[in-house]
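Quick start: read one record
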Amino acid sequence: MHIAIAGNIGSGKTTLTTLLAKHYGWQAHFEDADDNPYLNDFYEDMQRWSFNLQIYFLNSRFSQVLDIRKSGKNVIQDRTIFEDAHIFAPNLHSMGLMTTRDFENYFSLYRLMESLIAAPDLLIYLRASVPTLVNNIQKRGREYENSIRIDYLKRLNERYEAWISTYDQGKLLIIDIDDNKFPENTEDLGKVIMKIDAEIHGLF
């Protein structure tokens, strides 16, 4: 069983991955954002480092999906390879922060990788308004996120909504985190788990 959690920066993916892994006794696969050697440089000079950053994420996520499938274990994954290709890279391109040449090169590499991997059995999308995202980002206080602009989060949110509206590669569960405060409310977490159980039992 491979469950993946998608959502904008600050939507609670890592928190939910941790809570679900603990609840189900499954293995958690986290995004290695803190180990990414390009992240600090990227937030300081997006135009210079956007391509490098996205290639690093793409490679890292591809390796992760291969490992998940090879392991044969039940896994909960924090962020997907789809988000890199359908949200972050095209957003950088449209903002003029990645050249068309680099974006086309990036996307052809993604298409090749996509043809070699399977989609998760269940995709959970954490939907959040920009104020909720900003509040969560400020609460966790990662230094490299201090310079993230509100219009950047808004653009990403629009792309997430567009992508999710056409997602057809497997089962999809949408959790609205403006209404569901699962990180601090066990009752809300219980509601999420009940919905996941309903989806999982439909998979067998």
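Residues 31 and 145 are 15 Å apart (CA to CA).
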